[in-house]
């Protein structure tokens, strides 16, 4: 599929609208402002005075109305969600445009009291964009059992082709065959939690496979993307107890979902303090974060002494250390360890963590000091890294390469 969709934000009435529009349609911008004004009037003419327009609580499309060319025929469609009153079920309205005039095509039903999220993607693999909407039964969207609906645009109407209970949803081409998978995750504190992967085949959404999720855990972070060269996965940062957790990688080969790592006896990403997975070195591959907590005598978790280690999966059965950082939450800075600082660094702090020292084999490699600007007087042997909120951040090392590893958070 050609990536010809661009997103254009326009400021307009209410709390805004979002335009998802093809390049061809952008060839005629002068009429666009009038077209949007006409749409606003048309929307209002179909709503009662008590009706409330809904903006998704999360996701990319956090706007009152979404305007796009679903079937790429050069004329625009618009989708708006609203409810008649505070306790009503959310409904959708579909409008279509011709020569700058908008017509209401249909009203369609949602599956909850709040619009939680909205995606405009072709999950039915027919070349026509679909409307994928998640609905919550709470105002804050924090219920585990939300309602997900896929509306396929066909014969100029939106038809609901899928409806399911879910907690998290992802759309990604996990096995890279050119067809997006729809993945739903359901967390259930009373029953078994699971992950379900669907492909649209033979005019319906077909469950391809599902796996159980560890029922002891909750998810803190559910993302998908590359986890190794040419390999995508669903990445779930889960936690149990206070802070303990691990990062699960789940693959889809077109037929089956499978875990990369076993939970027992010990998960290779086990963490005693929760750090989220992210692409820390910006190479397009997600890293799993694991805290490195040095031995200390009092066994108390001292956040000022731990570092974050980020590991990439080797594509087989091991995790490789890619990146290590030190975050000072107290003073709001990050220090990325240089590549040549291989394992064995330990951290010492003093003066209420205002001074941090990075040490290897009893040798001081770098230090970071934080003092109030008013106390920063004798500047000899001090090299300023940054200033913020009347604080000065400095080091006693004269090494401009190391300064690049420091940044304020
Ligand atoms: Ca479609
Ligand atoms: Ca696929
Ligand atoms: Ca990365």
UniProtKB/TrEMBL annotation:
SUPFAM superfamilies: Integrin alpha N-terminal domain. Keywords: Signal. It comes from the Bacteria. InterPro entries: Integrin_alpha_N. Residues 1-22 form the signal peptide. This is VCBS repeat-containing protein. It comes from Chengkuizengella axinellae.
């Amino acid at each position: 599929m050609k990536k010809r969709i661009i997103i254009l934000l326009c400021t307009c009435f209410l709390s805004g609208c979002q335009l998802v529009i093809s390049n061809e349609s952008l060839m005629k911008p002068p009429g666009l402002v009038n077209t949007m004004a006409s749409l606003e009037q048309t929307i209002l003419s179909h709503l009662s005075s008590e009706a409330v327009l809904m903006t998704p609580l999360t996701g990319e499309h956090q706007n009152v109305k979404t305007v796009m060319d679903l079937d790429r025929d050069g004329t625009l469609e618009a989708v708006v969600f609203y409810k008649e009153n505070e306790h009503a079920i959310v409904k959708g309205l579909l409008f279509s445009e011709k020569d700058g005039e908008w017509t209401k095509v249909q009203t369609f039903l949602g599956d909850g009291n709040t619009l939680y999220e909205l995606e405009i993607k072709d999950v039915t693999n027919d070349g026509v964009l679909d409307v994928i909407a998640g609905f919550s039964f709470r105002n804050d969207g924090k219920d585990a059992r939300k309602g997900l609906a896929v509306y396929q645009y066909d014969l100029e109407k939106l038809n609901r082709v899928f409806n399911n209970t879910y907690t998290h949803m992802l759309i990604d081409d996990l096995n890279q065959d050119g067809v997006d998978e729809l993945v739903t995750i359901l967390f259930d504190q009373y029953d078994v939690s699971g992950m379900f992967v669907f492909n649209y085949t033979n005019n319906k959404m077909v469950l391809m496979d599902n796996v159980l999720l560890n029922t002891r855990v909750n998810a803190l972070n559910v993302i998908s993307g590359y986890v190794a060269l040419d390999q995508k996965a669903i990445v779930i940062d889960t936690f149990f107890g206070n802070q303990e957790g691990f990062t699960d990688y789940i693959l889809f080969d077109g037929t089956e979902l499978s875990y990369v790592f076993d939970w027992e006896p010990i998960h290779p990403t086990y963490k005693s303090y929760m750090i989220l997975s992210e692409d820390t070195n910006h190479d397009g591959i997600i890293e799993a974060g694991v805290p490195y907590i040095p031995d200390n005598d009092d066994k108390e978790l001292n956040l000022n002494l731990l570092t974050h280690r980020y590991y990439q999966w080797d594509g087989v059965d091991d995790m490789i250390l890619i990146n290590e950082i030190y975050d000072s939450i107290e003073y709001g800075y990050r220090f990325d360890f240089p590549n040549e600082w291989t394992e064995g660094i330990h951290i010492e702090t003093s003066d209420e963590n205002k001074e941090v020292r990075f040490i290897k084999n009893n040798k001081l490699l770098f230090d970071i000091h934080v003092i109030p600007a008013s106390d920063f007087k004798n500047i000899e042997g001090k090299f300023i890294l940054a200033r913020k909120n009347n604080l000065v951040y400095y080091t006693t090392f004269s090494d401009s390469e190391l300064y690049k590893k420091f940044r304020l958070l």
